[in-house]
Amino acid sequence: MSWIESIQKAINFIEEHLLENITIAQIAQEVNASVFHFQRTFTILTDMSIADYIRRRRLTLAAQELMNTEHKIIDLAYKYGYETPEAFTKAFRKQHYVTPREARKRQGALQSYNRLIIQVSLKGAEPMKYKIVEKEKFQIVGIKRTYNCQDGENTREIPLFWQEVNQNGFDYQLFQLNNGNIHGVLGVCVPNTSQGQKGFIDYWIATDHVGDAEEGLLTMEVPASKWVIFEVHGPMPDAMQNTWKQIYSEWLPSNSYEPAGTAELEVYPNEDAYGPDAYSEIWIPIK
């Protein structure tokens, strides 16, 4: 089963169990995928987390019931997963810009999020430049933080992590330490299996370094792998995001490779990442 087929099967499973207390781990298990790669693929293809999709769909259905039935608001709050009418009203207003009572009186337009259907273009109209290489294990040094993928924490917090690093000059320190074969500062995403539950990742901002780490920095060995390396041309963050989407929506579905499930890299050379001619890379270990 391809990644695209897996995502569509997962959406169908979500819709069938939309009013149940399902977890991302259960959804990923349904399509035989790891929580990390399932959440990552879903977010890349849909521009939202799984938790966001479930919340938006529930509130869409709740709005339809408010408009078309006489069910009490408190009953609908419980039905759609909210512990109190107040919590339901707050979430409802955030999505629809009106309260449940106003919606019932048909005051204002509602925001409807329909069931997703994944459609993929395999025409390859936009060429992708890539190469496949075999690389021995190497060491990275840097700092890391652990994020929960199940509630979308990773998508919210990782950009703030980079902002902090750029502001305090730590990225310059990493460029100075870069003496390995991969030239630049790395954003490294690794599944975390030590949390006692599924769905966590370690995100590193680091560099390829040979030798001991400086005080205060952590080290990690990236295993020997076969890598597909994609060129990314254009200013951040749009160029990087667009390339990730193209990889998952076009390249992976039309090739026999699949992600190996180990560390994935974004490589940023020591140049203006926001300039029109900026160059960077995405490294994905494959099998």
Automatic annotation (TrEMBL):
The protein's name in its UniProt record: AraC family transcriptional regulator
Pfam families on file: Cass2, HTH_18
Keyword Transcription regulation tagged: yes
Residue ranges of every copy of the HTH araC/xylS-type domain listed in the record: 8-106
Keywords on record: DNA-binding, Transcription, Transcription regulation
GO MF entries: DNA-binding transcription factor activity; sequence-specific DNA binding
Coiled-coil spans in chain: none
Limits of the PH domain: 1-12
UniProt key word Acyltransferase: no
Family matches, as InterPro entries: AraC_E-bd, Cass2, Homeodomain-like_sf, HTH_AraC, MarA-like, PH_domain, Reg_factor_effector_dom_sf
